[in-house]
Amino acid sequence: MTDNVLSSAIPSLEKTPTIFDSIACPQGAYCEAFASPGVPRFQWQSLLENLGQRGAATLVLDYERASRMRHEDGATINPFGDLTEQKTSWALDMIPFPISSKEWDGIEVAVIQRACLMERILADTYGPQTLLKNGKIDSRLIFANPNFLHGCHGISPPGNRFLTFYAVDIYRSADGQFKVLRDHGANPAGLGYALENRIVMSRLYSSLYHKTQIRRLAPFFQLFHRSLIQRSSLRKDNPGIVFFTPGPDNPIYFEHALLSRYLGYPLVEGQDLTVRNGKVFLKKLAGLEPVEAIFRQVGDHDSDPFALRRATSLGVAGLIQACREQNVDIVNPIGSGFIETAALQNFLPALCRELLGTELLLGNHPTWWGGQAEGLHYILANLNQLRISLAMTGEAQIDPSVDLYAAIKASPAQYLASSPVAPGVTPSWNGKGVSASNTILRVFACATEQGFSVMPGGLAIAAENTAALLEDNPERQKSKDIWVLSDEPVEMFSMMSGLTAIPTFKRSGDLPNRVADNLLWLGRYLERAEGLIRLLRAVFKRLSGEASPEEVSDLQFLLNILQSKNIIPKSADGAEAFSLEVLQHLKNALYRRDRAESIFSILNRVQQTAHNVRDRLSLDSIHVINRMENFRENTPLEPLEMLDQTLFTLSAFSGLAMESMTRGIGWSFLDMGRRIERALNQTVLIRIGLPLACNDSHNTLQALLEVSDSLMTYRARYRSAYQLAPVLDLLLADEGNPKSLVFQFNQLAGHVEHLPHQEERRFASREERIALEMQTELRLLDLSTIHCGEDISEITSLVEFLTLTEARLKEFAQQVSAHYLTRVPSTPHYAMINTSPSL
Amino acid sequence: MIYRVTHNTGYKYSLPASLSQNELFLFPRNTPSQEVIESRLIIDPQPQYLHSRTDYFGNTAHVFMVQHPHDALAISVTSLVKTSKPVVPAPCNTMPWEKVVQRLISPAGPLDLDAQQFVFSSPLVSYDSDFVNYVRPSFSSDTPVLVGAADLVQRIFREFAYDKLASNVETTVKQVLSNRKGVCQDFALVAISCLRSLGLAARYVSGYLETFPPPGKPKLVGSDASHAWISVYIPDFGWVDLDPTNNLIANETYITVAWGRDYGDVSPVKGVVMGGGLHVLSVMVDVSAQKEQ
User: Fold this and answer.
1) What are residue A428's DSSP bridge partners?
2) What is the pLDDT of residue A224?
3) Which of B224, B240, B142, B251 is closest to B191 using CA atoms?
4) Nearest to A593 by CA among A605, A581, A575
5) What tens digit of pLDDT does each residue of A345-371 get?
6) How far is B207 from chain A (nearest CA, A)?
7) Under a CB-based contact definition with an 8 Å cutoff, are residues A515 and A613 in contact?
8) Mean pLDDT of all residues in chain B?
9) Which of A321, A827, A837 sits opposite B51 (nearest CB)?
């Protein structure tokens, strides 16, 4: 043990060994927490003391609590994946990174200077290009750089602010000086994780947090918002600001959802936005809403597939044109990824003198660019000690098959070399104990009226080795909250006050078409799955009894229904007997992945649509949907058990939706989807089942009630044998039976009446009229005398009625889609140049 | 010569298109050997939004949007352009190509610097050793740059087959080089990739060419098409246009519309349409010489 060292180093502190004693700082790296072994630096003292007193056992529990809090907030990549195999972006390391106010002041000044410099460079690059013409920026950094977007040249953003949100990664080198590793311009990531870490930490260590004077983050977000409002001269009570995300497949989608909620900017994807008349609009059910500002987390190249000729569905066609017309303020302006150009760093000291007349305060990590003679010379002489990356994009050159020496000699300007990085080492919680991690700091700044303001805090990114730290892969990194200590009492700000102090964006209950569309289909797929499961369950129930299949009288009836619905293939003529082949068909109807209408496929679509709107669903509902993953063939479960279990899962989801979703428009669409599907299912079932039932024994009516989930209701209501008229009445016209057809129509009519309408309404919409028609005709239907017998005219006319109803339902669904959910594909078209030789 | 150029582009949609956005590079630009007298743009249906600008390379671009349902879209541009014979240096007196490369590495003035942007790969122009190998025979050491470029253009003319079916907008320049067939823009992109692989500056030019009917037959209105060729930078002189499709140094029958790094910078009509189903495209170009007044 290091007791001797400890006591000799600081005799005043008689301490027992703590969990931090094992931290060893390697040679050549700055030890963040300790001035010498066992001697904590001043800003770490109370933190280490406090955590040390808690002890390892408590910290293990703290860690579990922290992970749970973060999980509950949804900070995982894919809440639909297997929970045990979940990857997490920037998992929280609950040992924060404290920093003294004096040291922070230095960082703040330097980051502001750098942000100003970057903004001046952007303004020149996308404007007069004086630096290029005077040779202050190497011409290749513009001409041979994919980060420079030609189409954005000449655009002046609102307020002439070319950079409104900036982040920089800094590390502390062995000599204690901070150096810059890289800059983030287009869409800096990590702000949301910094916020989430702070929320969790302040809950986890609330007494320590409040005892220590730590500067609050909320004022930064308010400043961000106020500056945006001011710049875009938005009406303050009703600002059209949106948060633009690539969507749920993005690894840090959680952050987008959190920031969107925190700032009160609706979360939108590319397909939610449209450009008209050179202006940006949000597509909502009630019509187009103007958007004046966009907080963008979609990369530069993906922002506008039209102007940038990219086959991407993430962006908004025409967005750059809207910028050109100065009709929208985008944070950051498209094209600002230029400052991420790796080789640009080398030019910054000179550019800082040129543009700002001062020395660059934050030095760069040493790099050499092959495009400069001395750089190339150094690289070729020291190749095996350097890390090689692409000079413009900064991507690491990792293809081991490439002969680097030859490649660099052939096109030197494409390569950039950097010396090995040895970032400062901090104590880090690994789940069981404390270990050492290399740590860098991501610091954020936003544009203000006066220039820039730095967030007092940020994201400390930690990894066990430098390689993992340099990757752009949040899954392999952990993150810490940065605690900027204050010498003065801090202003008390509730984290959540940020949420309420910022005006919310048109909370009219209206929602984007895409969300409504997905909710509608979620409802349809859920109901489709349920209907099919009930039908197949009825079959497997009969197969699992003691009687042989031939003896179960209504089995054939159910199989006929399945055949008529094309769920299983039609058996050969006259082959009445139940065969193994039929059993295989039935199993296929459950598990086949390549069949669109198998239960497996439908459940898959349930999960996919739920995934698309996961920010609208409660975490509990998401967990329930997760359980549908269990539906697969190779389990010990018999088909009947599997169907039972899945039916429970579906019912659990319905229950949660009923109880926990607010009765807004979103719920209306989910419920409409269910009603449409249930009505369709019921109509088809009776239309097919009715003639079959008449040709069969009366037992089939029981089966019909069973698959319609109305058996108990029938027994309770009639207490008699199964007769056609009352059965049909219950299934079709009983307004009190939630499974009856008329019940679905009543619900649908209620929903469409309350949907938002684009214009002043004078007449009922087409879908309202169809709903009313279906409702009325069903109510007028006389079922009292219907019976099976010689005279089949009544049966025939009911079948005709059901056929018509089915067509009307489809028409209804189509009208709702056409009215609210224009799912129109867009296609690019180009004119080819096509001249034949004239000679 | 004075030419009246009419360029009509039409789209017919199988389903109504609800929203159409387009960018056009259809207005000819002024050059040392070309003066644009007038250009007019007519779009049917009338767009709700129309905007024009001068782009990074000095071309005129229009962006327009039709925002109501339409079954067809017609874009028509008519221009009156006066051309004269371009000044072309004697090829054998031009600078050796290695010296040109040096000048582009260390620009001696704004013209060199401006030309430098056409040295690098661009979205549709990339080059590797295949291009170097192909271009080498035309550029032995000390070959005057225009001699080499003219030889390259001639070889492409001879060795590549004109084939409308061989390429589409997805075809890469590398595929064209290995297939040895394509249309004018493919030949232009191959020539550009070859020249840039040596470190020379070459740009993509889009425009028109007056065509002549076979002897004894009348010229058909609308039989022309838009055309593409290349331009090569010669320090202390300027740019010289060469046409790989016809093995020609451009003369006064060439009408320049726009130039850029490659086809993507100056495609005459590009657009994105919501809905519309399948579309049928028709292009009609007419270049007719006017009597001098």
Assistant:
1) A435
2) 95
3) B240
4) A605
5) 999 999 999 999 999 999 999 999 999
6) 9
7) yes
8) 92
9) A321
What number is the ipTM of this complex? 0.94
- Whether A217 has a pLDDT exceeding 60, the answer reads yes
What are the pLDDT digits (tens) for A164-189?
Answer: 999 999 999 999 999 999 999 999 99
CA–CA distances in Å: residue B10 to residues A306, A547, A830, B71, B276: 19, 71, 11, 11, 13
Q: Return the closest-CA partner of residue A243 out of A286, A276, A282.
A: A282
A105 vs A111: CA distance, rounded Å: 10
Render B32-67 in DSSP notation, one character per residue. Answer: TTEEEEEEEEEEESPPSEEEEEE-TTS-EEEEEEE-
Residues of chain B with pLDDT under 70: 220-223, 292-293
| DSSP, res A411 | S
What chain B holds in terms of domains, given with CATH numbers, is: 2-84+267-290 (2.60.40.2250), 91-264 (3.10.620.30)
Is residue A128 exposed (0-12), middle (13-18) or buried (19+ Cβ within 10 Å)? Answer: exposed
- Residue count of chain B, please give it: 293
Which residue in A139, A140, A318 is closest to B21 by CB distance? A318
Whole-structure pTM value:
0.82
To the nearest 10 degrees (0 to 180), the angle between helices A619-626 and A599-612 is: 150
List phi, psi (to 5°) of B61: -120, 140
In the DSSP assignment, the letter for residue A788 is -
A→B contacts (Cβ < 8 Å), by residue, are 132-133, 139-140, 142-144, 150-151, 153-154, 274-278, 305-307, 309, 317-318, 321, 324-325, 822, 824-839
Whether A249 shows a pLDDT value over 50: the answer reads yes
Q: Residue type for A330, please?
A: I
Cα–Cα distance for residue pair A553/A549, rounded to 1 Å? 8
Least confident of A685-694, A726-735, A826-835: A826-835
Q: What are phi and psi of A730, to 5 degrees?
A: -65, -40
Instruction: Report whether A520 contacts A821 (CB < 8 A).
Output: yes
Q: Which amino acid is at A240?
A: G
Compare all CA atoms of chain A with the CA of B280 and give the residue at the minimum distance. A829
Question: Is A277–B274 a contact, with Cβ atoms under 8 angstroms apart?
Answer: no
The per-residue pLDDT for range A740-751, each reduced to its tens digit, is 999 999 999 999
Q: Which residue of B has its CA nearest to A839?
A: B246
Contact criterion met (CB < 8 Å) for A827 and B283 = no
For residue A757, count other CB atoms closer than 10 A to its CB: 14
Question: Omega before A332 cis (within 30°)?
Answer: yes
> What residue in A sits closest to B260 (Cα-Cα)?
A150
Written as one string, the DSSP assignment of chain B is -EEEEEEEEEEEEEEEEEEEEEEEEEE---BTTEEEEEEEEEEESPPSEEEEEE-TTS-EEEEEEE-S-EEEEEEEEEEEEEE-PPP---GGGSPBHHHHHHHHHS--SHHHHHHHTTSS-BTTB---HHHHHHHGGG--TT-BHHHHHHHHHHHHHHHSEE-TTS--TT--HHHHHHHTEE-HHHHHHHHHHHHHHTT--EEEEEEEE---PPTTSPPPTTBB-EEEEEEEEETTTEEEEEETTTTEE--TTEEEEEEESSHHHH-SEEEEEEE--SEEEEEEEEEEEEPP-
Partner residue facing B228 (CB), from A133, A824, A833: A833
- In tens, the pLDDT along A367-405 reads 999 999 999 999 999 999 999 999 998 888 667 778 889
- Contact present, B203 and B123 (Cβ < 8 Å): no
Is A144–B121 a contact, with Cβ atoms under 8 angstroms apart? yes
The per-residue b/e assignment along B107-133, b for 16 or more CB within 10 angstroms, e otherwise, is beeebbbbbbbbbbbbebbbbeeebee
Residue B185 with chain A: CB contacts under 8 Å: 832-833
Q: Could you tell me if A238 and A225 are in contact, meaning their C-beta atoms sit under 8 angstroms apart?
A: no
